[in-house]
Amino acid sequence: SSDVCSSDLRKGILDSTAHEHSAGNAFVASIPPEVLHGEVGGAREWVDKDSSRRLDAVLVAVINARAAALGRAPERGDAEVAMAVLGLGPDETDASATRRQKILDETFHEFPPGTGFAASIPDEVLTGDLDDAKRWAAGQTS
pLDDT: is 126 or 111 the higher one? Predict the structure, then answer.
């Protein structure tokens, strides 16, 4: 399973660096100095956690997009809507997990991650309630 994961990660890195003049610059810049200058074990641990870090960044991007669409600072409830948009939580299905991985793959080259995905969410979903977000996410996975 880790071979599949690492080959997927490698493919994501290569795909995201294909458009760069000097391929790999953005990926290298995304590696924290302590990982870059550290031991192999630390690098492996960083790679294992990379998806969850990017997911956190995508969640923050959606939270900020919702707050901006509502013309106010982010609030606690914005996180629940952002999680629902990404299909996280008790209603999660295999389809939403697959869709979330696709979102992470597509946002790999972005800095900060998630801005493109957040911008793709319709305003009525961003400004709606939790049920609106769940319905929209369910529609995206079908």
Answer: 126
Distance of CA 33 to the CA centre of its chain: 22
- Measuring CA to CA, which residue among 142, 62, 54 is closest to residue 105? 54
pTM of the model: 0.66
Please report which residue ranges of the chain form alpha helices under DSSP H.
2-17, 25-30, 33-36, 40-69, 76-85, 94-106, 115-120, 123-126, 130-141
Identify the sign of the CA torsion 69, 108, 56, 25: negative
Give the three-class secondary structure for 122: coil
Contact between residue 47 and residue 6 where contact means Cβ atoms under 8 Å apart: yes
